[in-house]
Structure prediction request, 127 residues.
Amino acid sequence: MFYDCAAPSIRSVPNNFGSTTYNDVNSWAQAQWGTLGVPLSSFITTCDQYLNGQQITLTDNTFSNNNGMPPSGQKVVVVMNISGEYHAGVLISCSNGSLVYSDYIGGGMHIADTNQIVNSYQAWGCD
Prediction:
């Protein structure tokens, strides 16, 4: 389960495109799965509900032609397994075996190993 990190991470992406509030995403997720959060198996479904994009395999080479950063105007929501807990954030960059991501629950930027990536979704717009 994601508990409450998926909704803020997913919500932050359409905010960049000028749409959708945290309450919209959170209310939809709670209507689907209750207050425990978005299950890992429903991460892509939840992204598809609010974003225009696709699931991607994120590696060091995915954005190597752009210094490890997603192309301008695109965002990537990433799910990681950190110490046995799933956590979602928004990718800032990915290179040299590490990814830097924004944490919308704990705040700030954090670093994780690329081998901790469980799933990722590249968005270029919102519904």
Notes: The mean pLDDT is 84. The domain at 6-126 is CATH 3.90.70.10 (Cathepsin B; Chain A).
